[in-house]
Amino acid sequence: MNTDPKSRRPLRVAHLMQYFAIGGLERLVERLSIESRSRGVDSLVIAYLEDGPIRAALEEQGVRTLALESGPGLHPGLIWRLRSVLRREQIDVLHTHHLGPFIYGAPAAVLAGCPRVHTEHSHELYDNTRRKLLGAMMAPLAEVVAVTPEISEFRKRFPGRCRVITNGVPLHPVEPSMRARGRALLDAEGDRFVLGCAARLSPEKNHSGLIQAFAQLRRDEPRSLLACAGDGPLAEELRSEAARAGVSEHVRWLGSVQNMDEFYAALDVCVLNSTREGLPLCLLEAMSFGIPVVATEVGGVGELLAQGGGILVPSKEPMVLSAALRSLAAQPELAKELGRAGKSIIDERYSIDQMVDRYVELYHEIAKKPFARVNVDSAPCA
Q1: Least buried of 28, 79, 120, 317, by fewest C-beta within 10 Å?
Q2: Cα–Cα–Cα angle for 273, 23, 261, rounded to 5 degrees
Q3: CA distance 88 to 65
Q4: Does domain 176-349 have CATH number 3.90.180.10?
Q5: What is the spatial distance between Cα 314 and Cα 321, in angstroms, rounded to a whole number?
Q6: How far is CA 86 from the centre of its chain?
Q7: Is 255 left (phi over 0), alpha (psi -120 to 50) or beta?
Q8: Could you check whether 9-168+352-367 and 176-349 share the same CATH topology?
Q9: With contact defined as beta carbons under 8 Å apart, do 345 and 309 qualify?
Q10: Fold of the domain built from segment(s) 9-168+352-367
């Protein structure tokens, strides 16, 4: 019997998420699927609500993708479509990301006899009885992973195990020329104090409060500039808010940004004003570049910044946020010190290699478990 690992086919993993739009979760799946290839994993990335640039980026790197567009609302038929894909592609492990993909992916994988991994990227969506019931059903149906210890602690109210695999990012060599190129792209001339926010333009990111804080900062620090990377449903509304606050000409709305390296390198501070989070990829990325961060104490952010690297502020307090930003503008040496500390934290605890190794180990672990396939081929709706 040939036991040479090189003679075996790669482990086939399907990732299921809602969007191919650019966001922290989507970029994490992109990196995980690309980096796991060198570890013997062949990935298929599936989204069912929205196409977007992440799909093109994956395919450019040789990762297969599939868009099962279904539109808003519940779509029970999506379960059967997913089951067919899992069987056809001979998927060894289905990895769902967030609550919505779990609702469709877990039953589809059960029907296909396919082992399941589910990652919880935050817990703030457990806001009604139905969602709490779904949370309780996760561990019996999948190996549950939390991206922070805080999420894992929250899940102790539900039965079953929840292991922790923290998000990871590439470790960047900082190139001086990259900062110059990034600031040129932002039209940040001279000694502008550049704040950057990389987040989807959606309510939970609270860009509205950030605009209020920035307007206050501009009164005390007129050289400040705000660059927002990301797109989303609030784009036009936020542009109007910036205009009403009198800061439109000092805000750069960049939309979906492909080259985030130059974006981060251009910043003096990375800011995130969310009302809920898991472990935000944008903060890890900024810290990997040695950029200090100012962020609200929600989700796993408090634990991350308790180690250093930035300043924590309470959620929904724009004046406190503005004061924290002003302190870094006035104390460049403090900002550099926080940036150095943040980079060290990423190097030691949040590298992409650590994250990918742990997920690949988990995939192999559960792929060995026996999962019975439910025979529904003869059912009328199969």
Answers
A1: 317
A2: 85
A3: 14
A4: no
A5: 8
A6: 24
A7: left
A8: yes
A9: yes
A10: Rossmann fold (3.40.50)
| Cα of 21 vs its chain's centroid, Å | 11
By the 8 A CB rule, do 63 and 33 touch? yes
pTM: predicted TM-score of the whole model, two decimal places: 0.88
Question: Residue type at 246?
Answer: G
pLDDT in tens, the chain (382 residues): 444 444 478 999 999 999 998 889 999 999 999 999 999 999 999 999 989 999 999 999 999 999 998 877 788 899 999 999 999 999 999 999 999 999 999 999 999 999 999 999 988 667 778 888 888 889 999 999 999 999 999 899 898 999 999 999 998 777 789 999 999 999 998 899 999 999 999 999 999 999 999 999 999 999 999 999 999 999 999 999 999 999 999 999 999 898 899 999 999 999 999 999 999 999 999 999 999 999 999 999 999 999 899 999 999 999 999 999 999 999 999 999 999 999 999 999 999 999 999 999 999 999 987 654 444 443 332 2
Separation of alpha carbons 114 and 106, rounded Å: 9
Q: How far apart are the first and last CA of the chain?
A: 38
Nearest Cα residue to 310 out of 323, 290, 355: 290
Which tokens in the block code for residue 91?
A: 């998927």
Q: Where are the domains of the chain?
A: 9-168+352-367, 176-349
* Interaxial angle between packed helices 332-349 and 281-288, expressed in degrees from 0 to 180 and rounded to the nearest 10: 110
